[in-house]
Amino acid sequence: MSTDMMRAEIWLQETLGTQQGIEELASRMGYSSSQIRRRFRSSFGLSPGTYRDRLRLEWAARLLIHTPKEIRHVAAVCGYQNHSAFSRAFQRHFGQTPRHYRQSRRLHLNRQRRDLSPFSYRIRELPARCAVLTRLYAGFRVLDDLRMWQRHVHDAGALPEQLASASTIAILHDQPLASELPRLDLGVQLPAGSGDSLALPPTFRLQQLPAHPYACLTLEHRDQLRPALLYMACQGMAPDGRSLSGEAPQLLKRHDALELRVPLYR
User: Fold this and answer.
1) What is the C-alpha to C-alpha distance for residues 62 and 118, in angstroms, rounded to an integer?
2) Domain of residue 84, residue span
3) Are 84 and 205 contained in the same domain?
4) Which of 1, 13, 21, 96 has its CA 20 to 30 A from that of 47?
5) DSSP helix/strand/coil, 235
6) DSSP for 116-164?
7) In a domain, 114, yes or no
């Protein structure tokens, strides 16, 4: 995966709620629109427009399942200016209208909730932070041992030495709902403002992590990750539960344990 196309893919994800087009992306990258489309398709098997449409629909699905947002609001947040166009695109992709999809998926989670083993969690309002991250599209077995993450990542050896003691963080973009376009951000977490002057290799970027409420769970091993995410998704369906935000969960390496942070709806 070329660094340019990785950055193009990240830009598409970060602009889902806007009307910025492929021409804007091409201008930012220093390519023509036809070059961007050709190179992106070669890397991801889809045109940039189709790729972004799928990301928008998957994001909409998460918001429909996990948040109380009205369907019109979900459509607008995901970049659709026309509610009818959103409903048609959603039904074409998922085989159900947004309303029926929301009802059926919530009913399924409610049924599962009764049979799940519980996880203990704390709700914390975490302060703003930042992270030095690279993106992976395969090879997610790195999550089995986050202590050794740098062995699995190109250019990790070129990171500044002062990052060696920072906490490892993984941002799971294909959770809490599985994605047809799996993505994983991997790197280290830093206090807010501490990464601004870092010289980073081309495959890494500095990303701001704003203050936000999270459900925080301590996991003894990697195999608990999916059951814990399912448990939190089901807890959001409970009458006294906190809804999830639909945003990507974070997994941090904490000494001999893992800490799962699931963003909550504010």
Assistant:
1) 22
2) 3-107
3) no
4) 96
5) helix
6) PPP---EEEEEPPEEEEEEEESS-GGGGGGGGGGGGGSTTGGGS-GGGT
7) no
163 and 63 housed in the same domain? no
**Per-residue pLDDT tens over the stretch 222-264:** 899 999 999 999 988 777 778 999 999 999 998 788 999 999 9
The structure's pTM equals: 0.93
User: Where does 184-255 have alpha helices with state H?
Assistant: 225-235
Per residue in 173-198, pLDDT tens?
Answer: 988 888 889 999 999 999 998 888 89
Q: Taking CA 263 as the corner, what is the angle to CA 113 and CA 96, rounded to the nearest 5 degrees?
A: 60
Closest CA to 128 of 190, 175, 218: 190
d(CA 53, CA 110): 29
Looking at the fold, whether 80 and 182 belong to one and the same domain comes out as no
Tokens found for residue 123: 């709700």
Could you identify the residue written with the tokens 């928008």?
Answer: 56
Which of 82, 107, 132 is the last residue in one of the domains? Answer: 107
Give residues with Cβ within 8 angstroms of 19, minimum separation 6.
Answer: 79, 81
Q: CA 16 to CA 28: how far, in whole Å?
A: 16
* Dihedral sign (CA 200, 201, 204, 205): positive
